[in-house]
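Run log, item B.
One chain of 647 residues. Sequence copied directly from the ordering sheet:
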Amino acid sequence: MSIKQTKYSAPTASKIHIESSALLTLLRHTSENYPSLYSGTLLGFESDEGKIDITHAYPYPYPDQYEGGSLRSRNGGKYQQDILESLKKLGYGIEFQGWFQSATSGNFVTNQLVDTLVQQQLANPNTFILIHNMASVGKEVDVIGYRLTENFVTTYLDGKWKSRDLEVHKLSYFNIFEEVELQIDNQYLVSTYIAGLPTTAQSEAEYDVLKLTSNQNVTAQLLESLYGQIDSYNYDQNNFNYYQRHLQKEHAKISQWKSQRKLENIERSRAGEKELDPNEWKTLFKLPVEPSRYNNLLHSHAIDVLADDILKKCDEELTKSSAIERKLYILLVRHGESEGNCDKSVNRFIANHKVVLTETGHKQARNAGVVLRSFLSHDQFEKCNKSGPSSRNCKSISFYTSPYSRARQTCTDIINEIKDLPDVEYSVNEEPRMREQDFGNFQSTPEEMEKVWEERAHYGHFFYRIPHGESAADVYDRAASFNESLFRQFRQKDFPNILVLVTHGIWARVFLMKWFRWSYEEFESLRNIPHCQYIIMKQDETTGKYDLKTPLKTWDDLPEEDIDDYEVTKEIGDEVSFNSKNKLQNPKDLDIHSIIKAQTTAIREARNKDKHILHQYKKLMNGHGASRFKMENQSAANSADTLEKEP
């Protein structure tokens, strides 16, 4: 796989402009011949500014047996050359710029396609390939431009594909390809073409896209492709595993030989004889050669892309099965103020799950019930229930509560404020997976707890595991399991219109982290949720996905100079008092100031460090796998501070 060229040249064009006529030609040919695979050549010119303009697309006249099969074939090359010569005779000053290829998800990652692309990139660094993902047939257009990365091309030039070589070149299956920005020119031409299409009556078969099982065939193809890639990956991995076992055995033999030679030399030294060569093992033993990791790399990338597309299809099916004709609300609410929030010594003598609400906490919970009552009295719910006979009650509510006493009491107080409303139906489910983060049993002395909080401040809240307790990552696992249970509940036709989760601050945050796929840095930047404040998730009527309607406060929102001891004290005062075990006779013997100081320092350090780490991670992942807080996730511009202002 090594070639004569020895130097990689970076591309000068970072953006591709494609004429809408060329794109329509591409899409029409690949779609009309689906499921057959088709590829073709893209012709155009490179401007003085380094911009690539694609003006013509010519598909090869025969289908491909596999992805990339026609790109290096003699017939394909001759057809491409004939097209160019014909256009030049007509006065077109265009040249070859790249290819297009139809493929099902990650199946385009083949040896033939990659070999062809790397050869062409060495001749012309701006060469690219457009992949039309046929998993999107009948839906949105999914066309992506790719080039091979510098990491891959330099490794290819080196011709060495052992694990150590991949590490030297910083190459993984994440960074084989880099996406090239694509811009469609003259989109008015597309609009004109669509407007001119005949409005013929649609047959019943053409409405299959509206059925719940509309993408069943595509999903099956994706799964079959995934099985095939996994089989190929396992075959290659078995060879590598055999090499590792053989290598381990040889190392054991060498170690045994060295020990024996060492003993022999000791005996010879005592006898006054010349010592034997201790490095003679190098001529006696031959270590196995590590197999190439090239195919493993390609199969891994294909599996990653296929898995992503299957996940998207699963999301679509979940949306269809659970969201059609439903506008569901998910309301997260933290319990009211508890005795543990006020008395630092409570958890030294009372089990965490038995801590109850204070009078203020009961008042907060009742107020939350009043807010929910006002929400249910909104016109949209009244009109919904009066719009005609329906199997669904728009005022149906499902409460899920943590089994801890303070959460149970909060749930009861909320229900007492709404249960007399007409048409309100509710059910209550107790869910142990929604419990508070475990901090051990009866907690220890103030000195030991002080050390724990300082350690957690510097280690990071998400991964730090409390001695004999849990980390936030452990709570995340519980929340993830609960999410899967919810998805199964959503499929039930009689599932209520409103879901209320009465829980704890950290559980609510990891629940959102899992749901919206936030990174752990995003979790670290979140500030705690106030008692009995609703966090509103509203389902979009068109996509079926959820928007976070309540803007969350983060440390990133504050300027650097505003992150001071006072601001941190407001944030963690309740938490420290809730979890600390001070002696009853001296409630001030916990040095809370040292904890606040450590937390303040940790937040400041994390702001810069985590942002740098996340930037490097996203760069390595080529923009995939890590998210940040985005307006489309939180919908902050349209959010309401309280549930009263919804919907």
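Observations after the first pass:
- Residues 201-216, 562-568, 572-592, 623-642 have pLDDT under 50 and may be disordered.
- The radius of gyration is 32 Å.
Flagged for discussion on Thursday.
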